[in-house]
Design a protein that fits this description.
Blueprint: E1 7-9, E2 18-35, E3 41-46, E4 55-60, E5 74-76, E6 83-88, E7 100-104, H1 109-118, H2 144-157, E8 161-174, E9 181-183, H3 197-205, E10 220-221, E11 224-225, H4 235-247
Parallel strand pairs: 1-9, 4-6
Antiparallel strand pairs: 2-3, 2-5, 2-8, 4-7, 5-6, 10-11
Length: 264
């Protein structure tokens, strides 16, 4: 991510550069939300209040007797006033927080897993610049840290904060920089390579010389490079293909983003 030193992550592609089990201290907020059908208070604990705008579900442990009466009802998301279902799910741990968990896109890998498992529609509240999107409403264009502070201030002003405490938990972390990672959906391209070996060899025998097909050194900006949307060293191959296409307009053209055969 380009905000400060935060990095970005896209699905499983960056698993090689992520250490998902780094334990860090975070501030946990216990805030009050309202159950739509009954009007009663429901306490929810979160370390990512800035992602309330992306909440699509509240889960509770199916064996927790105190929540069984709420199964299938709806919680009203604080500040944003959206209604989301309260659903039993075994991944909600009774011993953690309040036992009721907001599932947002995306606070951690657990959220990603549940969104896929349950077929939830993602709401993207953080963009590739590390700033809040239009989905965040009044917090739009703030950095993640700024939005977190402002959301807590707003909840406090509304009288919905019940308790704050410091906890130690696992945070997705960049292996190289040691910075926290935001999980941001991005479009991906899968490039076929072996199908085009004959064209590449033919190009080498023609007007395109081996010098003209040299690899370009990727230039990094906050963990990314200008030559490609791929992270780490994957851009080398994409850059090579672009160099070839500049000299031979038809070579590998179907292997570049924007063509039907670029995926698969």
């Amino acid at each position: 991510m380009s905000s400060g030193r935060r990095s970005s992550s896209t699905k499983a592609r960056t698993q090689a550069t992520i250490v998902p089990d780094v334990r860090r201290q975070s501030r946990m907020l216990k805030s009050s939300t309202r159950v739509k059908e009954t009007g009663e208070e429901l306490l929810i604990a979160t370390t990512r209040p800035e992602l309330m705008s992306s909440c699509q579900l509240v889960i509770v442990n199916p064996e927790d007797e105190s929540y069984k009466k709420l199964h299938g009802l709806h919680a009203v998301v604080p500040i944003f006033e959206r209604e989301v279902e309260i659903r039993p799910h075994p991944s909600a741990k009774r011993e953690k927080g309040t036992g009721a968990v907001m599932i947002c896109s995306y606070g951690d890998y657990h959220d990603v897993t549940l969104f896929r498992e349950l077929g939830l529609r993602e709401i993207i509240s953080i963009d590739e610049r590390g700033r809040m999107t239009e989905a965040a409403g009044q917090f739009r264009d703030l950095t993640v840290e700024e939005a977190r502070r402002k959301v807590v201030e707003e909840l406090t002003a509304r009288g919905q904060v019940r308790r704050t405490l410091t906890i130690t938990h696992e945070v997705p972390t960049c292996e190289r920089s040691g910075d926290p990672i935001e999980i941001i959906p991005m479009r991906e391209f899968y490039l076929k390579q072996l199908d085009f070996i004959p064209q590449v060899l033919s190009a080498l025998a023609g007007p395109t010389s081996i010098q003209e097909m040299r690899f370009l050194q990727p230039r990094r900006i906050h963990g990314r490079n200008k030559n490609s949307r791929h992270l780490d060293g994957f851009s080398h191959l994409t850059t090579l293909q672009l160099q070839i296409r500049r000299k031979e307009q038809t070579i590998l053209s179907a292997n570049l983003p924007g063509h039907d055969s670029a995926s698969g």
